[in-house]
Amino acid sequence: MAVSADGRVSLSATGQLHGVTGLAGRSWKMVKFCNGELMGKKLKMSQTGHGVNGKSDVKKHVSMSLATDIAGEAKLRDLEMERRDARTVAAIILGGGAGTRLFPLTKRRAKPAVPIGGAYRLIDVPMSNCINSGVNKIYILTQFNSASLNRHLARAYNFGSGVTLGDGYVEVLAATQTPGEAGKRWFQGTADAVRQFHWLFEDARTKEIEDVLILSGDHLYRMDYMDFVQNHRQSGADISIASLPVDDRRASDFGLMKIDNKGRILSFSEKPRGADLKAMQVDTTVLGLSRDEAQKKPYIASMGVYVFKKEILLNLLRWRFPTANDFGSEIIPASASEFYTKAYLFNDYWEDIGTIRSFFEANLALTEHPPRFSFYDATKPIYTSRRNLPPSKIDSSKIVDSIVSHGSFLNNCFIEHSVVGIRSRINANVHLK
């Protein structure tokens, strides 16, 4: 074993390291060794306590067990589990704006309450991603037409007959006015919505929270948020942004990032056009894409899914940018130059259900072979409200590449490449395509 001047410990074989410390009350956890070097916090030799005449007053042994695999490399297990600890993560799901681009679907409901896939609501997607990831401290911020959304959440994610959340909770927080000039405003944007509820993180229930997930309630995708959080913690980033590579056709619809060869975000531009758009091209092989993929998708777009260190988030919203209303167009671009902001690659299916066209196309994509997104993943299911509806009844009908939801009646009809919602009735001689 060798200890270098900067406090790093190197070992050439399996063994144990024993140390003596005078730091009474300090608890030591198992650490792991990777490639023979102590990872995580450096062991400060100056912390070794000494009493009178250099003798230790309190002796404590520090045991650091090394287990090598077949290749002879030590594996760090305890630290990995600590970094995946979902108990220290809270999620905030944003209920979205008025949803004018989805009208008339949003005439009487909030965007996250819009149906998707026949039997689900859009809010079920981030909620299920949280549950499947082990994140069970969830806040949902709503403002427009929230009655339908509140009713669905109460039925689907309660502690009685709905999806169980263990020791977690789901809180729906509606925009409200409070006494004082500042309290007369409704939510002015995504960042302002979180700012108005900053007091949540002064509550005793959130004292152990280290990182905060900011999620949108109108996206369709399946993601392990704890993989995202773990990457954020391992990199030491203050802010991490889930991103996906996009081509020229779609690039101007997103917030785009320029990154260095380690994934650190150097600049951020919200929906650039023309020359500004071309200036945001990057080498996406940095994020793990093949050379061919990188040439087809030379832009890195923000998904609107973020992880913030809790203290950084509160500092940005309350003190650093107290008048900024939006994460994508204000907070993130201004923070990239001051804080360690990192891109996290999500190279899988993701769709923003923000317009009637995207809603239509995302639903029909569910009927493709194979579908780009599937609700039929037993390991990572999408949850929703339980309904006491009978199975669908189908008489003398032909159905091709379609989804028929429960409680429906189909009689002597032809359904092709379509999604039929719950409690639907399609009568004779109808050809739905």
TrEMBL record:
E.C. number(s) listed in UniProt: 2.7.7.27
Domain Nucleotidyl transferase: 91-368
Keywords noted in UniProt: Allosteric enzyme, ATP-binding, Chloroplast, Nucleotide-binding, Nucleotidyltransferase, Plastid, Starch biosynthesis, Transferase
Gene3D superfamilies xref list: Hexapeptide repeat proteins, Spore Coat Polysaccharide Biosynthesis Protein SpsA, Chain A
Primary location group: plastid
Location of this chain's protein in the cell: Plastid, Chloroplast
Gene Ontology annotations for the cellular component aspect, listed alphabetically: chloroplast
GO molecular function ontology, one term from the record: glucose-1-phosphate adenylyltransferase activity
Known pathway: Glycan biosynthesis; starch biosynthesis
Oligomer and partners: Heterotetramer.
Record-stated family: Belongs to the bacterial/plant glucose-1-phosphate adenylyltransferase family.
The protein's name in its UniProt record: glucose-1-phosphate adenylyltransferase
Organism: Eucalyptus grandis (Flooded gum)
